[in-house]
Predict the 3D structure of the following.
Amino acid sequence: MNNLHRQIPPPHGRDLPRPRLIARLNEGLRCKLTVLSAPAGYGKTTLLGQWARQAGIKIAWLSLRPDDNDPARFFRRLIAALRTVNPAIGKGIFEMLRGEGRPGSPAEKPGMEQALRKLLDQAGLVLHDFAVALDDYQHIQSPPVHEILTFLLEYQPPQMHVFVSSEGDPPWSLAALRTAAQVNEIRAPYLAFSMDEAGALFNEVMQLQLSYGEISALVSRAEAHPAALKYAALCLKEERGAAADFIAGFEQDEREALPCLVEMLLVRQGAEMQAFLSKVFALELLSPALCEAVSGQGNSAALLRQLAETGAFLAPADTAGEWFRFHPFLATYIHDYFRRVAGEAEETQRRRAARWFAGQGFIEEAFQHGLAAHDANLAGELIEQNAREMLQNGELVTVERWLSALPEAAFNARPMLSICRAWIAVITQQYEGVETHLKAALAARGNSSRPEEITGHAEAIRGFLAERGRGDE
């Protein structure tokens, strides 16, 4: 799972070939940047994956997640992706970043600027064209990460081409790139299905043999939205009545077409599959072992394969066929549907998921599920166990984010969390807050199984500040 975010999404048998869009993406090899910008459900990831698999060049693929808003974590993952182009890229850069603390913009953080320049120098030694594909950029809200990308786009070598997919425009200015004819923009109107593509979906991929008029009606009602048309096709595949009856019903649900279609498919699942989905619906990524741990169903592997084969709810997340994911644009619908019946069981399921992920060393996923289960004790335990290494790796933003998500009671129960706050205040030179955190930790050290460790950290921090003349702040 560690390298899932660097794997080009594998193909699915029901993916629709879109040669006109592949040709448009190929134009991105003649410019610096290609942007695919459209709401969820327009097939951006599927299309970019199709292109990457047949582009004939090496692709540094990175599927972005909310935790990539930590600049240090994002930069490390970017380097790891670039190493799939050439293993020499990134050599020596991790050492430059270690202990950087909070990486800021290249202009404000000499260490980060130096690392970026070295990275681009190494990329410039690649003797052939290659692409960097950043999928789901809408997850990135961090100004320092945006500034890293701006820096890369300004100074990238000519053989490097960046492809970005997002549900909205990236926040960097594209004006200069447009003026220089160095940006290739593909937006929702172009990603929408043409009549020919809709016909191929219904009659070639799904073998439905609809008339031109029926296809035209569906395209009109769905406003050519790829996901809505795909789910209409899946529903029609299972529809026992006439297509005209389904289309008439679909027309009546014009504004809620996609939610209605998804619910229709969910209702049609058998009792065993419904029970399984009701226990794993909160998982973003799914594997047989994880699903068995969460659901208690020993046939999880077979059920996952069945779901993946239909293509309705799951897509493969790795080339080995071990990991799957819910289609991102379906997550909200699926969560809403099963949350009605899950009730308090969802917390139990998330707690099981958190324990499983923690046991496998996937700490971000473990923390998020522990937090969603309202298990502050588990979430706090994960911070205590991992904060030191993360701070040494410069992942300060992530540790801060985790700490800020905890209720204040967690800091009394686990005083080491207040020590973490104090160290962060030292690293960020917010000295006025250090003593407050130390006093809170010392007051609660009786709740720790290792109170002497709390005392030792407090003395070390106070000694560090005293050496720098900050002891009274």
